[in-house]
From TrEMBL:
InterPro entries given in the database record: HTH_LacI, Lambda_DNA-bd_dom_sf, Peripla_BP/Lac1_sug-bd_dom, Peripla_BP_I
Domain HTH lacI-type: 6-60
Keyword Magnesium (UniProt): no
PROSITE patterns found in the cross-reference section: HTH_LACI_2
Alphabetized SUPFAM superfamilies for the sequence: lambda repressor-like DNA-binding domains (SSF47413), Periplasmic binding protein-like I (SSF53822)
Keyword Transcription regulation among UniProt keywords: yes
Gene Ontology MF term list: DNA-binding transcription factor activity; transcription cis-regulatory region binding
The protein's name: Transcriptional regulator, LacI family
Amino acid sequence: MKSKYTTIIDIAKQLNISKSTVSRALTGHPNVKEHTRKAVLELASTMEYQRNSLALGFSKHTTHTIGIMVPEFMSTYFPSVIVGVQDVMQAAGYNVVICQQNESYETEVDNMKLLLSYRVDGIIVSHTKETRNFDHFALAQRRGVPLVFFNRVPEELNVPNVIVNDYEAAFQAVEHLISIGRKRIAHLAGPDALVNSRLRRQGYLDALKKHGIPYNPDLVLSYDLTIEKVKIYMKHFLDLGTPPDALFAINDPTAIAAMEVVKAKGLRIPQDIAIVGFSNDLSAGLVYPGLTTVAQPTGEIGRMAAEMLLQELNAKVKNDYTIKKAPTTQLPTKLIIRESTVAKTK
């Protein structure tokens, strides 16, 4: 059976009135007689009429819809940020369209085209690990669509953004490993193209330098954030003539996958090798032993990104939307110490 959405034309035909009268009745226009308004609303309910918000937005040059573009849903980080965004945007009367790129640059470009075709009022973004070309974001800027980035922020664009101090957080994480006596600290780093990966790596290096521990290139590997590579590289670390006694991982999924390799090898955590992750993913407190990690305020990141976007949207409404030095909001992190670095005493 062919399905069909009810339109104001259908309602107008049924009641033998003009579609403009139906439109005014549905929007509560005072010039519509009460009996007509009641008849329109009753028939609209019976025929399951639903307003086309997108088309209405086109006519008013605003859709009251924003987009969120995130690289993946494998961890709880991005869903937690999205909840924060929705809390603010929905309270402000905006609908939210969520796009997940599965770490694919091509999908990211396609999703940007989709959001622009929907005439979204603004977009909140964390780009994929594959993204090297940012022309699709520059296109949104040229069309006057405000952008706010978080977590993964492009250096090439002048955009408002919400971040944490990745460098300082990594530095503190590695200092914690040094404080418990670890000296051969390995680092599974993210792709060099990601700014936050480079900052976390630099924090690792500077913590070693501060405490007089020589940098060993054999103990640092950058990878593409796939679990398969974690297993390969962690096995490589453990098979070294003198294996590491600690690991600082780019994120929690990396750290947890590394823990599985360690346990499969028959080694003990943290006695043989201590492990620290990054982000405080929900799974970090559920694995055994519990994972020491850097907690990021994900909900607050989302809320702050939404507040920044609202500021951009309000400036646009007031015709005050101009290219200027984009603001950066940096939120604090906290090192959560669990059993993967400090064993419980009996």
